[in-house]
Design a protein that fits this description.
Length: 132
Amino acid sequence: MTQRVNSVVLLLCLGLMCPVVTGIFMDKLASKKLCADDDCVYTISLARAEEDYNAPDCRFINIKKGQLIYVYSKLVKEKDSAEFWAGSVYGEQYEDHMGTVGYFPSSLVSEQHVYQEANKTVPTTDIDFFCE
């Protein structure tokens, strides 16, 4: 009995230390992205959505016309592909979605303010297209 209890406690402890991550690696949308810094953590610009956009899968974010979006990176357009930017929505009325970073078509937004130039070309990684 004691051995069984110890085994259960050990498994619980291992589960807490090494939580199971569930998710899927989706297809890459591009092999390179433009960023303001090498780690793509600084905001490039603030954009306003000119149209609604419904995300087709978990790599993307939903945006509503008039919504403000912080832009963190811009995927480098490849042959026969759309141009996508990565960002997160901004504003108190969208607080349920604030902090969620995803892609959206650049053609549906207009940049309102550029904070920094996106002059660093960085390779994309599999984690850029990971969905939980």
